[in-house]
Amino acid sequence: MDERQKSLLKEIVECYIKEVKPIGSKHLCDKFNCSSATIRNEMAFLEKLGLLEKNHISSGRIPSEAGYKYYVDNLMEPKELNKEDMLKLQTLFTSKNLTVSDAIEKCLEIISDITNYTSISLGKESDENVLRQINIIPLDDTKLVALVCTDKGIIKNKQFNISKDINMLEVVKISEIINKMLIGTPINLVSERLEYDIKPIISKQVEQYEAVYGIFYDAFHDFINNNENIHVVGKSKMLNQPEYTDTSEIKRLISKLEDDEQVKKIVKKDNRDISIYIGSETEFDDNVTVIKTNYSLGGEKGTIAIIGPKRMEYDRVVGVLNILNKWLEEKGD
């Protein structure tokens, strides 16, 4: 493509994103000071390249999936945030009272509000966490909650039902032994130390030691193996997009957003600060765009993703994520 054709494609993509209407030659003639015949020829050339598609109900053109991809890779420039949106993010960035999980969740709300798209975080605690404390909270004679806390401020809880034959005081007593012996142990080594260091001790002190041991083993095992946090904010934002007016399409997309296994498909391994996946590239759904960035903050590693139509305001979303990445980098330091 020559420079005019590139500029033409950029204009068509950005106009379609804003107006959600096929772009005809009249608008482009005025913009590029060309004849209608010249513009039609250029649009036909872009269509031949597979970058534009002809809408069946109009003589205008719309970007194809390949057209969006070319625009993102070669023509798009990140957009600066306005003062109002910048203030929303700065309020979050300057807060010192938020935990890691609270900061990420609040960030999702702000991003969803700014972009008017659905935002998602998929977080996983890093292997660098070490045990700070385990607490046993009795709920009644047969129910308790085990709280596992790490030095990174990560807290997980799991509820257990125990036999009436087990003395709740003995469970609490074992938690005290664990705290004395295992504080400072990396979380991924706790199960091993439970087996070889703790179990021999409690077998001499607790009659129902196998059942009591099982409580603590399950609590730590659950922490290690099920430590993924998934937050989805702004599912209803999908309803605001004209692409998704069909009831069955809305139900299909909302159903996917409520399915953790589907949401996990958004995570991909790459080394880019910001990654953009369009349509079939997403592995989540052929009718959406996913723009994501990875983060590492306070012992938690994860992904923040924004989901919207393929007709997404790419420049604005990338602008938001650029600012977010800068904050995460500074926060991590």
CATH superfamily of the largest domain: GAF domain
Radius of gyration: 27 Å
* CATH fold label of the largest domain: Beta-Lactamase
Low-confidence stretches: none
Whole-number tally of structural domains: 3
Helix content: 40-55%
- Please provide the ordered H/E string of secondary-structure elements: HHHEEHHHEEEEHHHEHHEEEH
Provide keyphrases for this structure:
single chain; 333 residues; alpha+beta; Arc Repressor Mutant, subunit A; Beta-Lactamase; Enolase-like, domain 1; 3 domains; 5-stranded antiparallel sheet; 3-stranded antiparallel sheet; 10 strands; 20% strand
Give a written overview of the molecule.
The protein is an alpha+beta fold. It folds into 3 domains: 73 residues, Winged helix-like DNA-binding domain superfamily/Winged helix DNA-binding domain (Arc Repressor Mutant, subunit A, Orthogonal Bundle); 134 residues, GAF domain (Beta-Lactamase, 2-Layer Sandwich); 95 residues, 2-Layer Sandwich (Enolase-like, domain 1). 48% of the residues lie in helices and 20% in strands. Strands 7-3-10-9-8 form a 5-stranded antiparallel beta sheet. Helix 1 packs across helix 4 and helix 5 runs antiparallel to helix 6. The two termini are 43 Å apart. 29% of the residues are buried.
